Every structure is written in C-alpha cells, then in structure tokens.
Amino acid sequence: MKQENIILEKSYLFSVRIIRLYQHLMRERCPPRLADQIVGSGTAIGSNIEEAVGGQSRRDFVSKCSISYKEARETHYWLRLLRDTNYLTAKQADSLLQDCEELLKVLTAIIRSSKESQ
Q1: Which CATH fold topology does 1-117 show?
Q2: Buried-state track 30-48, b at ≥16 Cβ within 10 A, e below 16
Q3: Side-chain half-sphere exposure of 18, counting CA atoms within 13 A
Q4: Rounded distance, CA 83 to CA 89, Å?
C-alpha cells in the first residue's frame, strides 16, 4: 500500500481551489494580470513539491521545497491583495489564506528537518 504524503495531497487540493478561484476572478472581471499571478504562484506550490519528491538528492529536494515555500509566500500576498481590493470577500480570502498558511508551516518544517539531516 502506498504511504500517504500529506504535503502532496494538501498542495494538490490547494491548486484545485486556486484554479476555481481563477475561474471566479475571470467571471468577476478581475484584471487578467492579477488572476494570472494568483493561478501561477498558487499552482506552482504543488508542482514544485511534486518535483521535490522526485528530486535527485537531498539538496535538490530542499531546493524545490524552498521554491515551493517562496511561491506560497507570493500566493499569500496575492490573496491579501485580492481581498483588500474587494475581488474576494473576507470569508473567501480567509479560507484560502488559512490553507496557504498551513502549507507554509508544513513546508517550513520539511525544509528545517531536511537541512538538519544533511
């Protein structure tokens, strides 16, 4: 039986939510540049984690997780900006921000523990 990988699953589900957010933003006539930014950074979190799992070395793994962390920070920024410019309600943004913050915490722990075991 395949072992469950929490960060892979959470980041994938977050990407699904981000794509749905993008669809919502396009319907709400959000500037395409903003919508493109959030979908780019929000889905890059999971794609970089997926790459990290297939990394060639621990150093490669940490590097990809670090990129994923940076993408999550960027996504956090865009979510706050969309909320504060009223493209998202506080309720919509808070749910996504909470998920994003959880990914940031898990990624921080993964990066720290991976660096310590090098």
Answers
A1: de novo design (two linked rop proteins) (1.20.1440)
A2: beeebbebbbebbbbbbbb
A3: 28
A4: 6
Return d(Cα 116, Cα 118) in angstroms, integer: 6
69-90: b (≥16 Cβ within 10 Å) or e: bebbebbbebbeebbeeebbee
At residue 59's C-alpha, the angle toward residues 53 and 64, to 5°, is 50
User: What tens digit of pLDDT does each residue of 85-99 get?
Assistant: 999 999 999 999 999
Q: Residue 117 in 3-state DSSP?
A: coil
pTM exceeds 0.90, yes or no:
yes
> Domain map of the chain by residue range?
1-117
- Range list of β-strands (E), 5-108: none
Block residue for tokens 């410019």: 85
